[in-house]
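Write out a record, focusing on structure:
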Amino acid sequence: MYFRKTKIVCTLGPASSDKKTIKRLIESGMNVARLNFSHGDDDTFKKLIGIIRQLSDDVAILVDLPGPKIRTKKQLQDKIILKKNEDIILSNIKEFSDEKNIAIDYKYLTKDIQKGNLVFIDDGKIKLKVTDVLSENELLCKIIKEGVLKTEKGVNFPNVKLSVPSVTGNDFKSLKFGAENDVDMFAVSFVRKPDDIAEVKDFLEKNYSGKKFFIISKIEKAEAVENIYKIAEISDGIMVARGDLGVETPIETIALKQKMIIAAANNLKKPVITATQMLESMVANESPTRAEVTDITNAILDGTDAVMLSEETAIGQYPDLAAAYMEKIIETTEESYFFKNLRHNAYKTVSETGINTADNIISIASAKMAVSSSFIIEDSFIAAITRTGYTASLISSLRPLVPIVAVVPDLAVKRRLALNSGVFSIVMEEIAEKNVKIENIIKFIKDNYKKIRNKKFKSDNNSGYAIITGGLPLGEPGSTDFVRIIDLRKD
């Protein structure tokens, strides 16, 4: 029985802002819709949220916070040609960039940046070296990698600790908008330390205590890589944001950093997204490059829970085709010997790490028992009865080969699990009640089994077993303490 385990995140933008295209993205495998708040306005985002909610209860909505992204300002010409070895001034008081000045929006420019520091513009397409401090607001730079300067491009200062806070005023506005408009997840940009995530969580808890949001840390700075375990502990999920990470740190180390970040997330049982340039050639082409296919396959074999499309679906010519190719590559990888072997090894390794405490040891033992049973009963799925999503997330981290069907009380929990590898959720409102009977849940699973199987699973026969795990009394969060196996062919 095959069920796609690796999830797909698609960024919505000008190329995917209409109902027809979003519907095709969902049909092509999109599990999470990403809204990039670095671009766009409230009216556009409200429209997109409305379309997604109208089309699907399954698709989670992720708001990617802008963060303290430093950018060049607007310029009078459409393009400015910068030539190698020429001098140019970097200024935070100029209103526009021109042939002699690059205007940027960073007020701490001369406080943080010193002579000898490097400046990368537009993901490193242009590189400068600071040769002198001219004033409180201007730096003299030499162009060491020439290129064409375009308006409002990102600026990075590798290996420089910046004074700007990781969570900005614009981020808090975006958090407020998202919390009040039915989104499920927030990705925090340019995280440097655990306190950055604590600040976001405190804001949401203080202002929206009745709601639960999934908070993802984007790892894109050297400081974040150094603090990965502490950041992952406080986060709900992790994103390997390879774009800025490849500028902030040596690009030749990106593949190794990806493996390390994914391993850290796996060890701490937190879902992880691998992002940036996964199918970038498909912005303009109908098929991916060999290197891109290899990249996606290796990310899956590294242990990622999800893969993300950015420009491919936001501004590309073939958004739904890119998502369809992604799903095809995932399916081919997951049906391979290498993937299945890694899953067996992952269960043996990951299940022994990290989170065995007095508070959750019974839950972990029950989850391990369910997963080990699934390796013996191959024609099965694991049904995780969970009010909060914890049990299903825990089982996902143990990397079973069979599908995980999370029986959840509402759509909010359902969509919180949208990134977890191998999890498909169904809503049973009754499990929110403390006195719900296990017999009712078993009947619910049986009644929904064929519908689930036909919709999500690929199988040649109708036999099957459900490995059910949950807690008694049902409805108590964190009380997972039983495993029960039922034959779905029997009444």
The longest strand covers residues 126-133.
